[in-house]
Amino acid sequence: MPPIQEIPARQGRAVRVDGGQALQIINTFGHQVVDFWAFDARNLGAYLSMEHTRAALSRLTPRAGDVLVDNRREPMLKFESDTSPGVHDTVIAPCDPARYAKLGCAEGHASCADNLHRALATLDLAVQVCPASFNLWMNIPVLATGELEWRETVAKPGDSVVFRALIDCIMVMSACPQDVIRINSGRPVSAQYAVLGPAPTAAVRRPRATARASPTSSTRAR
Which of 26, 29, 46, 99 allows an S-S link to 192, with CB 3.0 to 4.6 Å? Predict the structure, then answer.
């Protein structure tokens, strides 16, 4: 069995997942949202894109079995499995310092955007912007009026998702520190992950070889 690693509460982790390998993300306690990103390991300017994936799938939320695409509309990940009820979000941007300032929080509140940059820095990597994240287990229904509602997760302790890399990837996870809005039941906690070996028939797309992006601050706010 592959070793299970912790994503500490309010923190992020980054890991390289080669083409054919997979990443399992575990909702250890059931009520935690995990923001998820993936980048082309050869070119961090190519990343998992929520807007392009929605267009490719013609729906708001990916399901197990779907192929998720990058910002160049190229296949990047296979959403291989999901043991939860399948309630996730692709609409809300990652929380960042500006979001918490507007919510009245003290300076220095942890955020998913900062977690992304700090996690990448542990691999000596950086990106120019914080892309929109795939918000695992985040429950944001669209009402008949077109309004959004912020609800608690419907996941159970131990629920997990698996993403199979179709190219060499850098994958990043943030145990969302949102403690003002109810999405984490007001109690952000840790989550877990494991890197899984190649599937017997895993398809791997040849990665692009281009220059790495350079760092700057996040431009999106949850």
Answer: 26
